[in-house]
């Protein structure tokens, strides 16, 4: 075995994989969130659909997205491997176990929380990502006045068995900038109107909050990053940004659409 | 005597490694709140012996919280409900009259039960044999004050060195991980100048042995730190990881 | 047999160097042909085992605990003395030597003590190199403190757990040798007998405490590093498992027992609360620096206090008897351990003790808290106060602590010569288990020093001399003496297991403790000792008739382990009483009421008792024979201690 395989097969190394993939996924969440904020714009989904196109066609982002899929898989697989290993380390369980006396609930339930998230991610990707790629979504044509950017005309183009070409051009005759894009926005709006989906989404975001509240700072510890002066900053980030703000803003989107659109 | 308590004990009894084991309930009547937990078991045992029943076996020795031999998982927590003490320092006044107390051995595959509440913790010795030392022979040593050591470093090394090797960290951990123990031992020497020459060999050797013994993975729940009778901090675990990854990814000398 | 202490000729300061030169060496290539058995893995045992293995000998090390690190050296709190003179305060090897001889009340060998002081310096270097985290100053150099009333600061320490840190150092050295394959470690093995073949110690018999297997092990030499026998008093500051079996069995095989009656009683322990009590907890002596010891002036008041009719705060200043300050105006509360202990017992015996049992005196910090402020007291003694609070549930910041003396250390042990060899060739005894360096009283922070001196720096030289003499001829356990010793041990185990009486072994142990504490404790007299001897005999007879031992041999069996240890204590106790009876003087921890000054202080009798008593076993039914090793003082002048 090489030094690296030995390192990654040790109990410390397996956790290193969890940490690196987990922190990478956390970082991605920020990007994902910033993009999704486009949903709150009143532009008939133009910005959101442009953003979706960009994310799926810009080469460096595509590479990162493959890394992301790999991270999700590795994170889940190693979680399983580590959990099985930990189960073997204590075959006979305690009859009375008072974990609440010495550790946080989320730290003891990362597996359950992670499973909820995995289910969510799978449904999330099949609902949006797979639909976007192969689902035959309708298109939207945005005609934005060159003189008044607020004036946007939206035309929905139903899917007719064959995808259109994404295009952006300036119509000099009409004095408009025209964008024809796959309309993911309309799919989002549809799903966010469904009660069960909103519920799944909100529950998953709560799970994500708990998962990251422990996971974010734990990821740093696993790397061995620990410093009296900087650890408190990471703890605060883990609680407020990753444990509360990010999940809350994500959860706000379906709620906003459900109640206000 | 007035103020004495009547308790019910739910004790794990297991004749030997091969035995499956079971809980047995005992009445512990007329227990003085001034007794230590182990003295309470002594009293119960004397009564059992008088009845011709096999006494409850448990490990103990110094009874002042330093040898690390006593263990016991009491009501769901290693060394019982109070923090910063071992079972031998736990007094019965921490319990109330009529209480039922469940007493289990440390549970971990790396700590097999020998009999009743006594477990085999020699895995800890083997981890230290793998590298928990400074390779100096007796004699021919330069003066003790030859190398000044900053007080903060010496104090931090001492904090790591206070570990009494009781295994409460493993017992408390939901994963039965030995990370706190192993890292405390690694840290003590990693901090001191005397430990530097073998620093990266040591961490690799000791982590490899820890894994070979079958302890679980640390998932940073922090339970070990809370339950450690000597207050060993999680920082040690992070220091161990730092050294381990440095050794594995950046140092050319390779061990295990 | 004439006792030969083998003290080298020449000036005191040169004896050890010259002796080292005169000792025979073992050829480096031959060292691996020798096997040395080390029993016990405390400071002396672990350091000896590691050092011998480093030299190339094969070592077999044994301990009854589950790990070598749990030996009771681990519990030492205060510190370790060394004549480093880092403080520039006038310390020197000679001063440490002098203080130790004087502190031992002139009942130790000059040459041994001087060697101890010489090597003390190397011990600190060794420990630091191993990574022992001693306390340091901001400049990065080692800190020292004055300890146990010493006039110089020569004590090195690691907060309140110097013993643990030193033992972990020795244990790590031992681990390294186990890893190298030079030491084979046998944990949870208890030595139950010594094998003497052809007049030499050649092996031991052990019982595996997990499986019950009785085994014999052969070696070219056997080192006993098995600690003290304070548990003969049942209650002591020793660990529960501390016992006399290894040295007692060796005594019965021909090793002389030196000064068995010399016991140290430590004054500042947490008092006994009831019959359930299994052990006593020591609190550092440093508490006496700021605490004032007192009891109520009158018995009536003490009794009302005990009954709870009045509170401590109801006792006015003029009704309190600060007896140490009253009797010893210049030393006050800082008188030596034996004096403080004896006076506390006198007060309690006079009916003026405090606490529910009356077996305690107050150690009061009220005045210090007022003078220094609570924060200052907390900084100095916070951990001790917490420990006290934890055990007693009383807050020492608000009410005075209750303290009482407890058995702490045994200066006596197997008699050894300058080479640490007992009267059985090839059998060595190190650390607290031997009688050597502390005379009749051990000074604070000297026990750790002696254990490590013996193991690191004495035995590696002296055992080589013996091994070179006998030659590297292989040893094994084929000699009939092995089979015989094994059979004797098995018979003894079977005898225990057949005992189905009515009284538990613990009850016998407790009874023995009461006898010893009452008649052979802090103060001893002829009538009491005679009575004790009779009581011990009766108790021992009863033990063999009426004790209960349960279970089988082939399992972990606490009852059986305990029975063997208590059986040996029951024999040792009688020898202690004999020794105390025979020594009709007071010295150090041994106070004979018949031998006191007009003020009631210990009075030595150098004319008649300046010797080491070395007892020879003559059979179970015969009296032990006393041999005397005269102590010759060429360098120090014998003076009467006075703390007025």
TrEMBL record, chain A:
The chain crosses the membrane at residues 16-35, 63-84, 110-130, 196-216, 237-259. Keywords: Membrane, Transmembrane, Transmembrane helix. InterPro entries: Cytochrome_b-558, SQR/QFR_C/D. One of its GO terms (cellular component) is membrane. SUPFAM superfamilies: Fumarate reductase respiratory complex transmembrane subunits. This is Succinate dehydrogenase. It comes from Pararcticibacter amylolyticus.
From TrEMBL, chain C:
Residues 36-448 form the FAD-dependent oxidoreductase 2 FAD-binding domain. Residues 586-605 are annotated as: Disordered. It catalyses: a quinone + succinate = fumarate + a quinol. The keyword Cell membrane applies. Pfam families: FAD_binding_2, Succ_DH_flav_C. Its cofactor is FAD. One of its GO terms (molecular function) is electron transfer activity. The active site is at 337 (proton acceptor). GO terms for cellular component: plasma membrane. InterPro entries: FAD-dep_OxRdtase_2_FAD-bd, FAD/NAD-bd_sf, Fum_R/Succ_DH_flav-like_C_sf, Fum_Rdtase/Succ_DH_flav-like_C, SdhA/FrdA/AprA, Succ_DH/Fum_Rdt_flav_su, Succ_DH/fumarate_Rdtase_cat_sf. It is an enzyme of class 1 (oxidoreductase). Residues 509-643 form the Fumarate reductase/succinate dehydrogenase flavoprotein-like C-terminal domain. It comes from the Bacteria. It is found in: Cell membrane. SUPFAM superfamilies: FAD/NAD(P)-binding domain (SSF51905), Succinate dehydrogenase/fumarate reductase flavoprotein C-terminal domain (SSF46977), Succinate dehydrogenase/fumarate reductase flavoprotein, catalytic domain (SSF56425). Keywords: Cell membrane, Electron transport, FAD, Flavoprotein, Membrane, Oxidoreductase, Transport. It is a peripheral membrane protein. Its EC number is 1.3.5.1. Belongs to the FAD-dependent oxidoreductase 2 family. FRD/SDH subfamily. PANTHER family: SUCCINATE DEHYDROGENASE 2 FLAVOPROTEIN SUBUNIT, SUCCINATE DEHYDROGENASE FLAVOPROTEIN SUBUNIT. This is succinate dehydrogenase. It comes from Pararcticibacter amylolyticus.
């Amino acid at each position: 075995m090489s030094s690296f395989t030995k390192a990654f097969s040790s109990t410390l190394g397996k956790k290193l994989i969890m940490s690196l993939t987990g922190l990478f996924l956390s970082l991605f969440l920020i990007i994902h969130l910033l993009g999704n904020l486009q949903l709150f714009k009143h532009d008939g989904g133009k910005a959101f659909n442009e953003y979706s196109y960009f994310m799926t066609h810009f080469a460096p982002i595509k590479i990162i997205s493959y890394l992301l899929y790999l991270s999700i898989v590795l994170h889940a697989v190693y979680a399983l491997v580590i959990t099985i290993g930990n189960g073997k380390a204590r075959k006979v369980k305690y009859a009375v176990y008072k974990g609440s006396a010495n550790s946080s609930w989320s730290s003891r339930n990362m597996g359950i929380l992670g499973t909820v998230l995995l289910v969510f991610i799978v449904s999330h990707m099949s609902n949006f990502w797979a639909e976007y790629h192969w689902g035959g979504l309708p298109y939207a044509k945005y005609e934005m006045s060159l003189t008044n950017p607020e004036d946007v005309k939206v035309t929905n183009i139903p899917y007719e068995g064959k995808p259109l070409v994404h295009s952006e051009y300036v119509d000099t005759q009409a004095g408009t900038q025209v964008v024809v894009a796959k309309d993911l926005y309309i799919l989002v709006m549809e799903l966010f109107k469904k009660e069960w989906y909103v519920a799944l989404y909100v529950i998953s975001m709560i799970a994500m909050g708990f998962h990251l509240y422990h996971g974010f700072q734990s990821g740093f510890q696993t790397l061995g990053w620990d410093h009296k002066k900087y650890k408190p900053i990471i703890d605060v980030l883990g609680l407020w940004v990753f444990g509360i703000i990010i999940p809350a803003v994500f959860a706000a989107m379906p709620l906003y659409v459900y109640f206000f659109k | 005597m007035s103020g004495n308590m009547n308790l019910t004990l739910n004790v794990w009894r297991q004749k030997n490694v091969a035995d499956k084991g079971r809980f047995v309930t005992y009445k512990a009547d007329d227990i003085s709140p001034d007794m230590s937990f182990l003295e309470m078991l002594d009293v119960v045992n004397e009564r059992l012996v008088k009845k011709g029943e096999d006494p409850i076996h448990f490990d103990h020795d110094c009874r002042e919280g330093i040898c690390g031999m006593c263990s016991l998982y009491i009501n769901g927590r290693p060394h019982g409900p109070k923090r910063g003490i071992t079972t031998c320092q736990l007094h019965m006044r921490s319990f109330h009259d009529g209480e039922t107390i469940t007493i289990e051995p440390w549970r971990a595959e790396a700590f097999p039960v020998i009999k009743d509440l006594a477990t085999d913790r020699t895995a800890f010795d083997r981890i230290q044999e793998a590298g928990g030392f400074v390779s100096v022979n007796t004699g021919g040593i330069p003066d003790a004050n030859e190398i000044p050591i900053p007080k903060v470093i010496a104090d931090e090394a001492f904090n790591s060195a206070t570990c009494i090797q009781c295994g409460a960290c493993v017992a408390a951990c939901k994963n039965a991980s030995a990370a706190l123990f192993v890292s405390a031992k690694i840290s003590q020497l990693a901090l001191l100048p005397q430990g530097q020459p073998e620093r990266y060999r040591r961490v690799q050797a000791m982590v490899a042995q820890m894994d070979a013994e079958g302890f679980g993975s640390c998932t940073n729940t922090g339970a070990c730190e809370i339950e450690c009778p000597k207050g060993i901090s999680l920082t040690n675990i992070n220091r161990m990881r730092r050294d381990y990854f440095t050794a594995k990814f950046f140092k050319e000398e390779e061990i295990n | 047999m004439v006792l030969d202490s083998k003290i080298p000729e020449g000036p005191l300061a040169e004896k050890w160097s010259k002796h080292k030169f005169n000792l025979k060496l073992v050829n480096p290539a031959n060292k691996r042909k020798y096997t040395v058995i080390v029993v016990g893995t405390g400071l002396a045992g672990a350091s000896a085992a590691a050092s011998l293995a480093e030299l190339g000998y094969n070592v077999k090390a044994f301990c009854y605990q589950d790990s070598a690190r749990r030996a009771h050296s681990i519990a030492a709190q205060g510190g370790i003395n060394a004549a480093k003179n880092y403080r520039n305060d006038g310390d020197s090897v000679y001063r440490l030597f002098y203080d130790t001889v004087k502190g031992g009340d002139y009942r130790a060998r000059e040459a041994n003590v001087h060697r101890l002081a010489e090597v003390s310096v190397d011990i600190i270097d060794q420990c630091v190199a191993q990574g022992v985290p001693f306390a340091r100053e901001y400049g990065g150099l080692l800190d020292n403190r004055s300890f146990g009333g010493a006039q110089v600061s020569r004590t090195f320490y690691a907060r309140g757990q110097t013993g643990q840190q030193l033992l972990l150092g020795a244990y790590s050295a031992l681990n390294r040798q186990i890893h190298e394959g030079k030491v084979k470690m046998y944990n949870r093995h208890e030595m139950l007998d010594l094998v003497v073949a052809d007049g030499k110690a050649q092996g031991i018999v052990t019982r595996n405490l997990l499986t019950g297997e009785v085994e014999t092990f052969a070696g070219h030499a056997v080192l006993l590093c098995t600690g003290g026998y304070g548990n003969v008093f049942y209650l002591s500051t020793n660990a529960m498992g501390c016992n006399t079996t290894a040295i007692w069995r060796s005594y019965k095989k021909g090793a002389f027992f030196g000064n068995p009656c010399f016991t140290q009683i430590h004054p500042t322990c947490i008092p006994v609360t009831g019959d359930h009590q299994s052990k006593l907890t020591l609190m550092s002596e440093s508490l006496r620096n700021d605490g004032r010891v007192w009891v109520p002036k009158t018995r009536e008041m003490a009794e009302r206090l005990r009954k709870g009719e009045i509170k401590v705060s109801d006792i006015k200043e003029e009704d309190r008897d600060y007896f140490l300050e009253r009797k010893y105006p210049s030393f006050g509360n800082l008188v030596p351990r034996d004096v403080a202990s004896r006076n506390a017992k006198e007060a309690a015996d006079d009916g003026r003790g405090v606490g529910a049992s009356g077996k305690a005196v107050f150690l009061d910090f009220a005045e210090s808290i007022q003078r220094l402020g609570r924060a200052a007291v907390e900084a100095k003694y916070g951990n001790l106060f917490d420990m006290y609070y934890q055990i007693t549930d009383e807050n020492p910041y608000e009410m005075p602590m209750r303290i009482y003396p407890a058995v702490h250390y045994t200066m006596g042990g197997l008699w050894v010569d300058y080479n640490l060899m007992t009267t059985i060739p090839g059998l060595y005894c190190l650390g607290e288990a031997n009688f050597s360096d502390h005379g009749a009283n051990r000074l604070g922070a000297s026990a750790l020093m002696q254990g490590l001196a013996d193991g690191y720096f004495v035995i590696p030289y002296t055992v080589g001399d013996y091994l070179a003499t006998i030659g590297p001829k292989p040893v094994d356990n084929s000699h009939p003496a092995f089979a015989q010793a094994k059979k004797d041990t098995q018979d003894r185990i079977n005898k225990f297991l057949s005992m189905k009486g009515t009284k538990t072994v613990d009850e016998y142990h407790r009874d023995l403790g009461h006898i010893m504490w009452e008649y052979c404790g802090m103060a001893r007299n002829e009538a009491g000792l005679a009575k004790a001897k009779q009581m011990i005999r009766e108790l021992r007879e009863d033990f063999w008739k009426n004790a209960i031992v349960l279970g089988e041999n082939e399992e972990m069996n606490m009852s059986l382990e305990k029975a063997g240890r208590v059986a040996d204590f029951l024999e040792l106790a009688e020898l202690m009483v004999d020794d105390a009876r025979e020594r009709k003087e007071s010295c150090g921890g041994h106070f004979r009421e018949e031998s006191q000054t007009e003020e009631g202080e210990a009075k030595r009798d150098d004319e008649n008792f300046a010797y080491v008593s070395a007892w020879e076993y003559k059979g179970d039914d015969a009296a032990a024979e006393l041999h005397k090793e005269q102590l010759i003082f060429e360098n120090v002048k014998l003076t009467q201690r006075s703390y007025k």
